[in-house]
Every structure is written in C-alpha cells, then in structure tokens.
Amino acid sequence: MLDQEPLFPTDRIELVWQGIDHAEGLVIADDGVVWAGGELGQIYRGRLDSEPEHIADVPGRALGFALDGGGNAYVAATDESGLYRVTPDGRVDLVSRGAAERPVVVPNHPAFLPDGTLLFTDSGNWGRSDGCIYAVSPGGETRVADTTASSFTNGLTVSPDGRTLAVVESTLPGVSALTIGADGSLGGRRVLVEMPGTVPDGVAYDERGRLLIACWAPDALFLLEPNGLRLLAHDPFRISLHEPTNAAFVPGTRRLVTANYGERFLSVLEHDARGAPLPRPEFAWTP
Q1: Cα–Cα separations (whole angstroms), residue 143 to 84, 124, 147, 148, 157
Q2: Contact at 8 Å (CB) between 275 and 249?
C-alpha cells in the first residue's frame, strides 16, 4: 500500500497546538472548537488558530472522544478504566465502566448513533480477539451491543446515511462494518477492508461516503474509495505525521485534523471533500 504516490504531500500539512502531550483522540464541535486528550489524562480545548486551554483531567491516558448536542465531551480513559463526560466548564463525571457482567478492559472510543444511543468500544487484550462494543442509555444503563467486531476493537464512526457503523479492528488488521437497525441494534458484521502490515486506529467519513483511516503504524492516512484503498498521506520521517491515531473534520469544511500519538502536535490538511456530519443528539444522562 505504501508503494503508491500519496494523494496529499506532507509539506502541505500544517502543525498546530505544538507542545500538547501526545494526543491520541480528538473531536471538533460544530463551532470549530477542538477537544483533544493527553497522555496523562489532560483534556485540551480551543481553536486551531490559537493555543489550547487545559480545562480538565481524566484518570489515565485520554483516548477517543465524542460530543453530544449540549456541548459535552465523552472520552475513554485508561486508568480507572471507563467512559467519562467532560462539560465545557471542565467538570468530569464517570458515565460507565462497562456492563455489570462484562466490565471494560481497555475503553477506547465513543460515538453516538442517530437514535441517541451512546456507544463505546472495549479493545480487550491485544491478540486475543476479545473486544466488544457497549451501548449506554440516557438513563445510564450499559449493555454489550456487539461482540463480533472483536479484534482489538478501536475507533468507530457512523456512515453519512446513518445505516452503518464502521469499526476499526486493529489486529484484523482492517475495518469492519455493522448494520445499524431501526431500534439501534448492531449486527451483520462484514469486513470493509483488510490492511496487512498496518495497525489502523481511527476512522472518519467524508460527505461522499469515503472512509478515512488513520494508522498508528505506519505513519499514514488512507482513503477507502469504491475502487479500493488509496494512500492519502504518509510521512516516513515522522515530521508532520507521527503515529496519527484519530482524525476528525472541522464541521462544514474540508479541513481534516489528526492527533499524533507519537508527537506533541495536531496535523491539519485540506481534503478534497467536506467531512460527513456526525450524530450529536441531546443526551439526558446525569451523574
């Protein structure tokens, strides 16, 4: 895959928020405000053209993020493993530690379904294919929603038509898809793409229904098109991309932003299409 000419040259990638602590996850609000996390649990918030503010801390490394319609962020954290809510003013509350019969092992990435259900992945143990996806109701009940996309279950995102959940399985390695039922159920797992020799981590759809895939290894971004997988950007020197784990679009624009697990900055590039809108429902959960 790396023998292709990248669609986007690395010398056109802009570096912002230099000095942040090895961000793995990020999410961008409709007004352009970026949330990202740090290695020690720092929660950063701000705009790309200014310095971020360190507004809160979660226990352990902050991994994936999602936003609800009230502007609250939901972030997976590794110590005291669980999913946490962070309000815009920096209040942190535990939302879920998994299901009663199946406590979370490695909470990794949340996402909302169109019906308002909050999902988050448990990667499980590396190499054991014991990951799963949880569903959290507004009342706080957590259930296991899927165990079929289990090969170190990682990033996930909803397709533009709201019918498909794309799920990274890092040790597949590749990306699978689950059909989203009218009742919010998940099923019918199928493999969208296998990516031998890589460790995929995060995914985002553009408005044309193409899937962007960020890889922890190699230092690359890929674009899954109807005719196959294309190399979007690759930096073998790790100057502008260094273990790009998660990616998100500035809503309504073509600006694609990636977190870099191996470095202390975010990377920004101009894609050839705008990002697909994400479900951001009101989520009436209270501590």
Answers
A1: 16, 16, 11, 15, 19
A2: yes
| pTM score above 0.90 | yes
Encoded tokens for 187: 């099923």
Distance of CA 90 to the CA centre of its chain: 21
Instruction: Render pLDDT for 197-208 as a digit per residue (tens, 0 to 9).
Output: 999 999 999 999
| Longest CA–CA separation in the chain, Å | 50
Tokens at 234, concatenated? 């690759």
**What would the two tokens of residue 230 be?**
């294309």
Residue 181, domain extent: 10-270
Q: Is residue 4 part of a domain?
A: no
CATH assignment at residue 177: 2.120.10.30
Number of domains the chain contains: 1
Using left for φ > 0, alpha for ψ between -120 and 50, and beta otherwise, residue 32 falls in left
Contact 241, 232 (CB under 8 A): no
